[in-house]
Each structure stands twice: as C-alpha cells, then as structure tokens.
Amino acid sequence: MARTLLVTGGAGFIGSCFVLQARERGERVINLDKLTYAGNPDNLASLAQDPDHILVQGDIGNAELVNWLLRQYRPDAVVNFAAESHVDRSILDPEAFVRTNVLGTSTLLRVVKNWWQNLDEPAKSSFRFLHVSTDEVYGALKPGDPAFCETTPYSPNSPYSASKAASDHLVRAFHETYGLPTLITNCSNNYGPRQFPEKLIPLTIINARNNRSIPVYGTGSNIRDWLHVEDHCAAIALVLEKGRVGESYNIGGHSARTNLEVVQSICEILQQEEPSPTMYADLILFVTDRPGHDFRYAIDCSKIERELGWKPAHTFATGLVDTVLWYLANDAWVENVCSGAYLDWVDRNYGHRG
Question: Which are the catalytic amino acids?
Fold first, then answer.
C-alpha cells in the first residue's frame, strides 16, 4: 500500500517539486499550503485532476485544521516545507518570519506529537516528521573556512536564518523531549523551474528579458553553493526513507559560485537563446548591499553521500541552462506570478539601492 504524506508548504517552489516527485513515486499527498504570494497552485497544474493529491489552503499554525487532517488522512509522514524564506523580506518584516517559521512550526510539532503518541504499532514506530531547513542557520564563512557540516555551531545572521535556526532547535527538542521521530535537512541555495522571481536566478532572467536593470548586491562577490531543486527533493525523499531518526543531513550541490558569476552565466545563456542587439550583461547594476549580507556559504554533504548514497544528478552548467529554458518556455506562468504586488515589492526592496 502506497504511503500517505502530509506535506506543508507544498505549493511553493521546493515543496511543489517534492509533491510532483512524490506523485511520480505513487505516494498520496495531502498538501497543506497557506497560498500566500509564494504558494502558487499553478506549480501543481499537472495534478489538478489527480484524486491522490489533495490541496488544502491553510496555515500550519491552525492547530484545529492540522489535527483534523492528521485524523482524517492518517499520514505515514509529515514533511514540513512551510516557511517564509527570503532574507530581504525578513529584513523588512521580521515578525512575519517569527510567526510562520517559529510559532507555526511549534504548533505543527505539538499537534503532530499529540496525534503520534496515540498511534498503534507499527504505525507509531514507522512514522516520521521531516523538517526542511537551510544552510543559512550556520552563519557565514570567510575565504578558506571549511564548509558547513552537521556539527557546525548555529550562528544565524539574518531574521530569516534566526527564525529557521529556532525551528530546527524546536524539531530537535521534540525528538529529545518526547521521542517524536524527526529528521532535519539543511540545504544550500536552490534553483530550478517554478522559483518565485524574488530570488537571484529568476529575477535575473525576467529582468533581462524585459530590458530592466539586473540588481546585484555590493560587488557581486558573495559566494553561494547552488543545488538544483530536483536533486534537493530527491535527497529529502531518501532521508525520509532511510535517514537515521533524530539526525540532520546537509544537502549541497557542489556548485559554489559568486553571485556575479551566476548573473553573468545567465546573461550568456540568454544571449545565445534570445540574442539581443545590446548585451544582457550591460543591464547589470551594482546596488547597495543588504544589511548583514553573509559573504559565503558552503556545504559539506559527505554525510548524506556516505550514509545514504546520494549525489546530485545535475551539474550547475547544465542545470542553469535547463532552468533558463524553462522560464523562456513558460511565459504564462511568469506573467501570473509577476503581479502588481510583486512589482511593488521589487521597487520597495531595490528602488532605494541604485
């Protein structure tokens, strides 16, 4: 009998990729998503008529709703993607990140724990709660520093990463205190199809195609490790199936690049696919850096490779080309997400930095 998963935040960028892969594996998915600006039902359009994908609009902080879903569908696992996830937005409104990432996760854990404690065997012992987190909880690296590993002390520097660190600690505490069978994954920067265009790669693609300036913070020298979303979700599924209860697993793409290198690569791909009489790279505009901008992240994912046999299937070069081509081929999706509210936010975040 196929597993049933309760996936929170499953209409967002990473969550929707996981849901699509889960349905390909034959797993039934109960998808709880608040459907805010980043939760997009269009990401799941291919499942519109699928009776084994049940999309429920709601908040992980709604204890009554979560409890009803658990009792109604009796999931074999909960996979928690639900989060506010953009550093720039957290700088403008940190309380929103505390409400969802800390208080929401706390409520979700409490309700799941209460329900799990009353399960009969073997359902109780086989149940899992997997929490999806970020490498940003570890803080920032200087040139030459070793990559983050699972034992790196937490040192978050933004309201976003602080809220995610708090949620990670809560997940660990529920395992240690109550025995809830939890797993945590910490990933590097994701990219790929259906990413909301506030993030660097889709923002660059969309602005370049519309002949708008491409904002790059500071000198563009900040370094990130890039992980294709499909590789990330495949790793999460593997951790859910084979990971050791109570453990955390780092997931990275072995693809460290400066932000400027990423933007320049996108411009080169666009120039090849949609030649412009003026070079796309000429649209690059260096803007005032954001406060507390972490210089470098790097992930040591040897633990998941060693214990579970996972490795990323995409190289950054091929994955970036595929991503750009997806955005070029999906104008309707782009137009739907680039609403007035999105443009207002871009102006609010970047308008004063030029």
Answer: 135-136, 160
